[in-house]
């Protein structure tokens, strides 16, 4: 297959966006709407809520920690076979879960099996997307990630209907069939060969080169800190509102408002990320700072209007930072190393995600309300955005009027010319 | 409303003292105790109150006017025996002393009630004790004769709750049917399954299939193992409370695995077709591209060939031309 010098920025790339859209829906939408099954499983197995919620936690943990595996395999074999295999795994996990007779059975089938299936799908797809786009990368990523928000809206009532009609066993069986569409999404990921691919070498070589890459390490650290604060409102906003004596219905309405502004934020930020000149890291800094500020202001707001405004602000800014966060990576490490890079970032930042919610809960137990939790969450985001300042090109306002070329390509060009020289000498 | 002394009786043809005597006699007859003196209406009731002084006191009240269109009703949920003090207040422009007041339980006339008048408002009070289900029911206060105004107190036992939606389960599965009462602790719970329209009590001793869990007083759980399609239908849980009985229905649906399997296989087939379409489309476009590329190559080869031949042809005439020119 002919090697391309530049990502196509369109054409088949839009089919990859479609595929990524459905994949984020089928992976994260299912995870987010799992609450419907959670209620049924608590009743069916007569277990405590904490033990049943481990199912989803194991699934998320396996998905995030398994990301490097997905990326390594994609580097070697291309994203298509990996994602299709992941789809089969995820669907089989759900299928086996529908026959579960105990909670352990569910931990293994949904948590482990489906989780590893999800690990093999999401990261390779996003990385593949980054390879297909250069100028419109942020917009493509933003559009693809709207799948998460939209699917949460659609899947929650759908799962509720499935459970009322077929009970949780039948419901899981049909969710398994739904997850099988990941295989179809994987089929859409046509392999793309870029010029820098042979130069960056195999997965092992890529990993070692990444671990020595200063900006990459700083970026990973920043994202980990951001992740720690990012998920806290998702987990604790409802409880915080109940502490303020909000009605459950109005609280749920507020959460829907957050979800909608999150969606709008993703697309808007994606578009903005491509049109605004200069490195995308600056936009990431902007959005993370604003998210941190809005989070820290949450405890101060007491009136419904103030909380509503903050909710919209938080939703918009937190949604806005997601596509940009993914777009920064190719600019840092190059599209050749994107699979490995993304996998590593996902794995490390998941530590932040796992620690964030329990930390917030612990602070709440110690101080009595969520003030400390939100302020600390905001602080994490602000520190993270501060670390982003140390990334290259963030402060160069004079030089680049256009986007900096993927820095990987510079390194690659020198390598390629060297190898050519070497061949000539031979 | 605080307790009012019995000073006024219903004005009628009978003199006041005789009426009080009648009331007292009636009251003591109901108690089954010999009456100590003619005017013992209050003390008799007072004795009742001391006997049941450890019970709680409920004091519901209703307000009526002579212009009320519809009868006023009030529901009172009662779980344990209590002392009751019912109060009806009636506002009228007419002379309060001329209003005819009656208390009824269902259709039965009650005695032993108290009256007081303040300005335009007439207060009627009836005190009694609810000990068992016999005293439960509807108590009404009625004012006036031609245009009768009625206020009714309905005494009910607390409700029990099952599940509103049918419970969906599968064959060979295990399920638990739950009935619970939020604000009461029934003395006894029993379960019934329905055979057609008859309620059949569930025998727990017969087999392992049915297990009733009675650890919690406020709820009951019926566990059914090894479900089969014959177990489908309505189940009833009955709570025996101190002041009555309550019944609730739970619907059980048992499905076989084939029910969700059909849509599952349908969706799997759809995914396989999708994947096939995508891959075939890709190989098709690749073949086409290769065809075009081959075509381009072919054209390029043709181009080169024609260039060569053109060069040869051109050389010859030029050569000849030169020769002709030079000569």
TrEMBL record, chain A:
One of its GO terms (cellular component) is plasma membrane. It holds the Pfam family MFS_1. Keywords: Cell membrane, Golgi apparatus, Membrane, Symport, Transmembrane, Transmembrane helix, Transport. It is a multi-pass membrane protein. It comes from the Eukaryota. The chain crosses the membrane at residues 12-31, 82-100, 106-127, 139-160, 166-189, 216-237, 249-268, 280-300, 306-326, 338-359, 371-395. It is found in: Cell membrane; Golgi apparatus membrane. One of its GO terms (molecular function) is symporter activity. The keyword Iron does not apply. The keyword Membrane applies. Residues 13-402 form the Major facilitator superfamily (MFS) profile domain. Proton-linked monocarboxylate transporter. May catalyze the transport of monocarboxylates across the plasma membrane. Belongs to the major facilitator superfamily. Monocarboxylate porter (TC 2.A.1.13) family. This is Monocarboxylate transporter 13. It comes from Suricata suricatta (Meerkat). The gene is SLC16A13.
From TrEMBL, chain B:
Residues 60-141, 158-253 form the Ig-like domain. It comes from the Eukaryota. The chain crosses the membrane at residues 264-281. It is found in: Cell membrane; Synapse. It is a single-pass type I membrane protein. GO terms for cellular component: plasma membrane; synapse. SMART domains: IG. SUPFAM superfamilies: Immunoglobulin. InterPro entries: Ig-like_dom, Ig-like_dom_sf, Ig-like_fold, Ig_I-set, Ig_sub. Residues 302-327 are annotated as: Disordered. Keywords: Cell membrane, Disulfide bond, Glycoprotein, Immunoglobulin domain, Membrane, Phosphoprotein, Repeat, Signal, Synapse, Transmembrane, Transmembrane helix. Residues 1-30 form the signal peptide. Interacts with SLC16A1, SLC16A6 and SLC16A7. This is Embigin. It comes from Suricata suricatta (Meerkat). The gene is EMB.
């Amino acid at each position: 297959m002919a090697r391309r010098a530049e990502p196509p920025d369109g054409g088949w790339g839009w089919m990859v966006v479609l595929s990524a859209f459905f994949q984020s829906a089928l992976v994260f939408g299912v995870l987010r709407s799992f609450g419907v099954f959670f209620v049924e499983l608590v009743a069916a197995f007569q277990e405590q809520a904490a033990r049943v919620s481990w199912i989803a936690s194991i699934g998320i943990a396996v998905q995030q920690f398994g990301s490097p595996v997905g990326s390594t395999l994609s580097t070697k074999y291309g994203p298509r076979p990996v994602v299709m295999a992941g789809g089969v795994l995820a669907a089989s996990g759900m299928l086996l879960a529908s026959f579960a007779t105990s909670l352990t059975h569910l931990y293994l089938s949904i948590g482990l099996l489906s989780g590893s299936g999800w690990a093999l799908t999401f990261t390779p797809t996003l990385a593949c997307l980054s390879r297909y786009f250069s100028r419109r990368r942020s917009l493509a990523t933003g559009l693809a990630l709207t799948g998460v928000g939209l699917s949460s809206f659609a899947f929650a009532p759908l799962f509720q209907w499935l459970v009322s009609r077929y009970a949780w066993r039948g419901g899981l069986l049909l969710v398994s069939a739904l997850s099988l569409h990941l295989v179809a999404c994987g089929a859409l990921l046509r392999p793309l060969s870029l010029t820098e691919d042979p130069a960056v070498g195999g997965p092992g070589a890529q990993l070692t080169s990444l671990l020595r890459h200063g900006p990459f390490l700083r970026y990973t650290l920043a994202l980990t800190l951001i992740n720690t604060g990012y998920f806290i409102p998702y987990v604790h906003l409802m409880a915080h509102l109940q502490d303020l004596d909000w009605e459950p219905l109005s609280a749920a309405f507020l959460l829907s408002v957050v979800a909608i502004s999150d969606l709008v934020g993703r697309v808007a930020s994606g578009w903005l990320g491509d049109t605004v000149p200069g490195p995308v890291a600056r936009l990431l800094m902007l959005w993370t700072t604003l998210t941190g500020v809005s989070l820290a202001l949450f405890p101060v707001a007491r009136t419904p209007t103030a909380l509503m405004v903050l909710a919209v602000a938080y939703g918009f800014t937190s949604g806005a930072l997601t596509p940009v966060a993914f777009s920064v990576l190719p600019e840092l490490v190059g599209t050749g190393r994107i699979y490995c890079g993304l996998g590593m970032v996902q794995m490390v930042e998941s530590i932040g995600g796992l620690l964030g919610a329990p930390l917030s809960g612990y602070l709440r137990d110690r101080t009595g309300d969520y003030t400390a939790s939100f302020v600390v969450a905001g602080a994490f985001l602000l520190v993270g955005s501060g670390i982003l300042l140390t990334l290259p090109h963030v402060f160069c306002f004079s030089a680049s009027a256009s986007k900096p070329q993927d820095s990987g390509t510079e390194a690659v060009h020198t390598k390629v010319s060297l190898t050519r020289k070497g061949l000539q000498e031979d | 409303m605080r307790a009012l002394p019995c000073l006024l009786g219903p004005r009628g043809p009978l003199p006041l003292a005789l009426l009080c005597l009648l009331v007292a006699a009636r009251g003591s007859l109901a108690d089954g105790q010999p009456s100590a003196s003619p005017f013992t209406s209050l003390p008799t009731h007072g004795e009742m109150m001391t006997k049941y002084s450890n019970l709680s006191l409920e004091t519901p009240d209703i307000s009526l006017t002579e212009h009320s269109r519809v009868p006023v009703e009030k529901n009172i949920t009662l779980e344990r025996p209590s002392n009751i003090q019912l109060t009806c207040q009636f506002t009228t422009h007419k002379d309060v002393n001329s209003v005819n007041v009656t208390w009824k339980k269902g259709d039965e006339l009650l005695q032993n009630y108290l009256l007081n008048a303040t300005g335009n408002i007439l207060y009627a009070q009836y005190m009694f004790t609810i000990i068992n289900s016999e005293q439960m029911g509807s108590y009404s206060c009625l004012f006036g004769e031609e245009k009768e105004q009625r206020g009714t107190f309905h005494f009910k036992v607390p409700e029990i709750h099952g599940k509103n939606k049918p419970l969906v389960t599968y064959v060979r599965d295990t399920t638990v049917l739950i009935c619970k009462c939020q604000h009461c602790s029934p003395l006894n719970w029993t379960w019934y399954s329905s055979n057609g329209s008859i309620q059949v009590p569930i025998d727990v001793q017969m087999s392992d299939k049915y297990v009733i869990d009675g650890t919690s007083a406020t709820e009951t759980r019926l566990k059914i193992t090894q479900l089969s399609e014959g177990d489908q239908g309505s189940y009833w849980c009955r709570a025996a409370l101190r002041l009555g009985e309550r019944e609730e229905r739970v619907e059980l649906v048992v499905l076989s695995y084939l029910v969700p399997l059909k849509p599952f296989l349908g969706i799997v087939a759809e995914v396989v077709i999708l994947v096939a379409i995508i891959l075939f489309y890709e190989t098709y476009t690749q073949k086409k591209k290769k065809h075009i590329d081959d075509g381009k190559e072919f054209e390029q080869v043709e181009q080169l060939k024609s260039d060569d031949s053109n060069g040869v042809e051109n050389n010859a005439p030029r050569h000849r031309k030169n020769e002709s020119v030079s000569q």
